[in-house]
Specification:
Mean pLDDT: 77
CATH architecture of the largest domain: Orthogonal Bundle
Number of strands: 11
Helix content: 25-40%
Strand content: 5-15%
CATH topology of the largest domain: Arc Repressor Mutant, subunit A
Number of helices: 10
Length: about 325
């Protein structure tokens, strides 16, 4: 069974033109509409390619029709069989779920759409790099034209970026969604060595000297400008990015706004703690590692002075209210 539509090489009289990697010709929302148009005519049956493209308003040998078919295949909405004039197209099981599951707020249909959004290889490559985090079009364009092998040409890269953003905005995949890296996919230098590099939206655990620092997995909400530290939901301060390991999201993860700030729970044998009882049952907790260098001690003393100034400012603000 053929899985990737064959298209002719673009060749000039003097030299072969650079061809960009495959990418969906249309975004996912449009692809689902085309799948519905096919279903309305053919149902669950297979149909010759030359018939299918006419359902979409194209001539038999139109490049737009063939590119539309290729896009539906790349999203996993259609599959093809046979070659040449005998090549046929048929809707997949995932496409039928999207088209026929008309239950209000169906999670099954929503998940089928998310799966389709991350099925194209180029989408998998981009998602593995950024997931649900913010990215600039300039950084994504740099990835497409300079980091891929083979690369996209600049004009095509802009088309890919728009299609990808439209598709992800429509499907809204979960932050925790993962896709396998196929051969030739992008890997950072550290990932190539087998180490994990957390990204915004990942669920992680903090492994410090062989001990786990979090009572339960936490979601990364930001990274420091130098890329060495991570900020996670429910955690005061930053943790070393190099000490984070990937975790699976909880079945019903709490919303970040509902999380109270928690201190790091490292083993007591490695940490010391000083608790100051306050009024109305409140308390202040100070915690530091058992083993400290002289530089660490100096830093902590300076931090205490900063804390004193913050407390004084807080008291002054309360008096002015």
């Amino acid at each position: 069974m053929a899985t990737t539509p064959k298209t002719p090489e673009l060749v000039s009289d003097k030299k072969k033109r650079m061809r960009s990697p495959a990418y969906p010709y249309i975004n996912l929302e449009t692809a689902i509409k085309r799948a519905k148009e096919f279903y309305d005519r053919e149902g669950r049956n297979a149909a010759p390619v030359k018939v299918a493209v006419k359902h979409w308003g194209y001539e038999e040998k139109s490049s737009g029709g063939l590119q539309t078919a290729a896009a539906l295949i790349s999203f996993g909405l259609m599959q093809d069989e046979g070659t040449g004039d005998k090549r046929k197209l048929k809707l997949t099981a995932n496409a039928l779920i999207i088209l026929l599951d008309d239950r209000p707020n169906s999670e099954t249909r929503a998940q089928a759409i998310k799966t389709a959004a991350l099925t194209p290889k180029i989408h998998q490559q981009i998602w593995a790099r950024y997931k649900g985090s913010q990215f600039s079009e300039a950084s994504l364009k740099h990835m497409l034209i300079l980091e891929l092998d083979p690369p996209f040409n600049p004009n095509t890269a802009e088309t890919v970026i728009k299609e990808y953003k439209d598709t992800i905005g429509y499907a809204k995949p979960d932050y925790s969604a993962t896709v396998p890296l196929a051969d030739g996919d992008l890997k950072t230098e550290e990932e190539g060595k087998g180490s994990y590099v957390a990204k915004v939206g990942d669920w992680v655990q903090w492994e410090h000297n062989g001990d786990l620092g979090f009572a339960e997995p936490k979601r990364v909400k930001g990274l420091s400008p130098d890329g060495n530290w991570a900020y996670v939901d429910g955690q005061y301060g930053a943790v070393p990015l190099s000490e984070l390991i990937p975790e699976t999201a909880p079945p019903s993860p709490p919303k970040p706004d509902d999380l109270s700030l928690q201190r790091v729970q490292l083993p007591q044998t490695r940490m010391q703690e000083f608790v100051v009882p306050l009024s109305e049952g409140n308390k202040a907790v100070f915690q530091w590692p058992t083993a400290l260098t002289q530089a660490d001690i100096d830093d902590l003393k300076d931090s205490i002075k900063i804390l004193e100034r913050k407390i004084d400012r807080s008291l002054a603000e309360q008096k002015t209210e």
